[in-house]
Request: fold
Amino acid sequence: MFQTLFQFDYNTKNIRLFLENAFLSAFAANILEPAILFYLTYNFLDTTLLSLWFALVLFIFLFRIFIIKKLHYFLSVKSDKVKPYFKVFVGLLFVNAFLNLYIIILSISQGIPTTTIFIFSTMIVTITAGSVSTLIGVFHVYLYFVILNMVSFIGAILYFGGEEFYLFAFILAIFTILILKIGLKQYRLIDKITLMNETFQTIYESSPDGIILIQNNRFKDCNSSVVKMFGYDTKEDLLSTHVSAFMPKYQDDGSLSMRKMLQMVKVALKEGHHTFEWKYIKKDKTPFWVEFVLTKIYVDGEELLHAVYRDITKRKELEKEKAQFQESLKKQVAIEVENNRKKDEMMLYQSRLAQMGEMINMIAHQWRQPLNAITIATGAIHLKAQKNKLNTETAIELSDNIKKFAFHLSATIDDFRNFFKTNKVTSITDFKKLIESVLLITESSLKNNQIDFQLEIKKLAELNTFENEMKQVLLNLVKNAQDALKEQQPNNPYIKVLINGTTISVSDNAGGIDESILEKIFEPYFSTKTKKDGTGLGLYMSKVIVEDHCGGKLSVNNTQEGACFTITLEGEKNA
Reply:
């Protein structure tokens, strides 16, 4: 602290504060005070000396005014000459103080009246006290000025005034200490305020976000980021432009920009703050987006809006690109879904064709017996007619048999047609009805291959599903088990169907599926059969039907005796 007492290195804020009252200070110190001193000492001092002194003080006043103007100019252009000129000004200040003290001390030493000395003291005290407002921003100068004036004056009256001035000198000393203490306190307060202002100004100017003060729907002040953001050259150019020039006529939602902005301002004034996104245009008409935060504040009793702008143009562009990408992806997914749907339909069609071929073989087995019976019956009619032994009873009996066998053939055709009927509407059924429908078609083939069919029902539940599609799946599982048993030829071959609520399993004792291909059997066109016997679509389409169409699950695992396929549907209802 002691080392800095002799330094005059003040920042521009302190000097600017000092200059606010510099002219009045110069007038009081170089015009008013010297004029009073001239008047009071005119009868006691040499007129020539006094006139020369007054002329010198007046010259210093003019020089101070010149320096004040220079300092104002250098501050406005931010010149590095501010501090050298300020030091010259301080020097003039002390020269003027020395000149005044010289006349005062000279007058006291010449034995001027006591009343005049008290007038001198009042003048000194007034000038010194007034320096608090003019010099407090440059505290070191204030400190030297007070000491120079008060200490010199106190010393003069003690030396030349006699014992009657001891008490008065003591009072002036106390006063000196008080005004120094008050001055120091005010200086620290002002310095703290100045530091806070500088900190705020630094944050205000260096902030990458734009900051604007809005009053009566016009820009009152802004930082450099706003100037750059809007593409203007200077702050003055921007502030002199009407706010309508910064906005497109319409926002992206189709609303008028000015009308919507007034609504946003109204919300901010009512709620105290408001945050929203806004589209602006630069000076060259280039659009850009900002995140807008409006906050109501009060400055010097006036209601203002403090606005913070954050440029989010890149974010909006990314959002737009993201939306376009998502829309493109959505269309692509829709195309792929449609392609997959068509592919699945084609595969389902191929699978049905393959199943129809297998069904024809099954029907051939079921038709062989009634056709043989019909052939025998017609042969008997023909033979008896040749021998004239065809009586009425025999003819009726044989014709009834033919009719019964023909009905059986017709029923088989109906089962075949209903089994493959396209039905896109769900219906209420259960696994027992579905497997019985499958048995109507497969029973004859199973018997011909001496395969035992076992049906076990632990629990029965109603299902709301696509009935014909689920029949095709069960038919495919039963037919695959039959083919595996025919190929492996185990002792006592069997197919076991277990129904437990909304779960049905189809298992056999054909030895199971090789573990190396167990995970591949549901892939399209994968088959363990020869190309002549299999298409590789049966299990794939079965999984598509169960999981994609019916919302269930189809799985497979090996048991100790063979493979076990399990279907589980959701939404159980007790039957």
